[in-house]
Design a protein that fits this description.
Residues 5-67 form the HTH iclR-type domain. Keywords: DNA-binding, Transcription, Transcription regulation. Residues 68-252 form the IclR-ED domain. This is IclR family transcriptional regulator. With 255 residues, this protein is of the alpha+beta class. It has 9 helices and 8 strands. The strands form 2 sheets. The protein has a 6-stranded antiparallel beta sheet with strand order 5-4-3-8-7-6, sandwiched between helices. A two-stranded antiparallel ribbon has the order 1-2. Strand 7 (197-205) and strand 8 (211-220) form a beta hairpin. Helix 1 (6-20) crosses helix 3 (38-50). It is globular.
Length: 255
Amino acid sequence: MAGPVQSIERAAAILRLLAGGPRRLGLGEVAASLGLAKGTAHGILRTLQHVDFVEQDAATGKYQLGAALLHLGTSYLDVNELRSRSINWADALAARSGEAVRLGTPLEGQVLIVHHVFRPDDTFQTLDVGSLLPLHASSLGKVLLAFGTATVEPGREPGLEAYTRHTLVDPERLARALTEVREVGWAAEIQEMSMGEAGLAAPIRGHGGLVVGAIGLSGPVERICDSQGKPRPPLISLLREAARAISRDLGAARW
């Protein structure tokens, strides 16, 4: 029988390396980490880029996983499994934060809410399960956009819809915001979809570190943000802890 194909093994190693890191990697970093000559690593990266499994940042020249690979990675995951693995952690997050918690996955260019835990108080609330949110105006959607789990193509439409005066409708501003989401590991929406409301979200990862969904909490802006209008750090910490716990249950390595 024929042995393994070395070039495919090397390509797989590069993809695992990019999936396991919290940031983009340069050619030299990829080559050094895997013990490859730069020319060899560059050839493989160019091929992976050609099939959209890898993307290269135009400004820095560094590489990250491409949208095509991320979409392939999410196809194995049943939404019901994602929901079932998340229920206990979502309930705990709502109890600890005092805010409503929602779980979202991409669906036809929007965010589908697959689980919703009410804010633990006596206020009137409406169940959001099954509702759709815009990608660019919600913290859940920003997470899915930032990590390539969902895509929005403003050029194909007259423009992104402005829900409030704070909604990010300029493609360049949105792109900068998504870059920041990737860097810090969480997203915020502050009166971008509804005045007086704010939300935070963090990515949920599956096998290989691929982002398969997002978990978020939402509430009145004065509860989610401090007096300076910045998201409250304790809420961010609680949210990220819940996201990591769900990711571990889904088979993601430590991240």
